[in-house]
Design goal:
Elements (H helix, E strand, L loop, with lengths): L11 E3 L5 H4 L19 E3 L16 H5 L3 H14 L10 E5 L15 E5 L6 H17 L4 H11 L3 H5 L3
Antiparallel strand pairs: 1-2, 3-4
Length: 167
């Protein structure tokens, strides 16, 4: 089993990082990844707090100002496909996704907050995008705190909306 090598970036706040895909027995060439089991860790961006959401994540287009270019994320995706032991190594079958989404103040460039999320299966990168949007809208409306939304996504994004009563 190959360890996941991700180095932190200044300006990020990390919490316990787990190689969820590998721990779940999906890595090391065992088979294809499942998005729901690979997104249970991440890193927060210290520039985003509950007190400044109206000038950060709640501003339309804000994520575009912090999203790293593919020239940065593609090498991470290629290495992540190897590190997670995915049997499918086709880069176009994955999105280098933020475990804690930019929409909730996830660290944009910290490699520990990025992972190759599959575009196929029942819980995919596309499915997670919808969850992220619903949480961002709820945080910006004051329905849920930033901390609660981040925690729910971190624990299990596939059940986060139901657990919090948002969706």
């Amino acid at each position: 089993m190959r360890p996941i090598r991700r180095t932190p970036v200044a300006g990020s706040t990390a919490f316990t990082l787990t190689a969820a895909c590998v721990v779940a027995g999906i890595g090391a060439g065992v088979g294809t990844a499942q998005a729901s089991t690979c997104s249970q860790s991440g890193v927060y961006y210290s520039a985003v707090t509950q007190s400044n959401i109206n000038s950060t994540i709640c501003v339309s287009g804000w994520t575009a100002t912090v999203r790293p270019p593919t020239s940065y994320t593609n090498p991470l995706k290629a290495q992540g496909i190897i590190d997670y032991g995915y049997s499918d190594t086709n880069m176009s079958d994955y999105e280098e996704d933020h475990m804690i989404p930019l929409e909730l103040g996830g660290s944009p460039r910290d490699p520990r907050n990025l992972w190759p999320e599959p575009h196929y299966g029942t819980k995919t990168a596309y499915t997670k995008d919808g969850v992220e949007t619903k949480f961002k809208n709820a945080v910006c409306a004051g329905t849920i705190t930033l901390s609660a939304a981040r925690s729910a996504i971190k624990n299990n994004w596939t059940t986060a909306l139901q657990v919090t009563g948002i969706g």
